[in-house]
Amino acid sequence: YHSASASQLRPCEPNESLHLSDFHVLEEIFRSAGGAVYKVRRKRNRQLCVLKERKFAELGRKRDILNEVALLERLDHPNVIKCYGHFWDH
What we know:
1 helix
């Protein structure tokens, strides 16, 4: 599971199909037992984004992950990075 977000322009269109191959990983920002967070650049429009990766073991909690995504996509706060979409990459 990955979620994509950007600090300025919308990096993807609603319901757009995304894949890990759509991004260039620039650097790893954070890593934990549950996954990692990366600074990435979208290949299509060169938009800088943050990509949150969850470990495959976390996928057993798919409903929890989808609830988190739904919350983040609705949340609009200057101190929280905006979530513009998510995708599953196997």
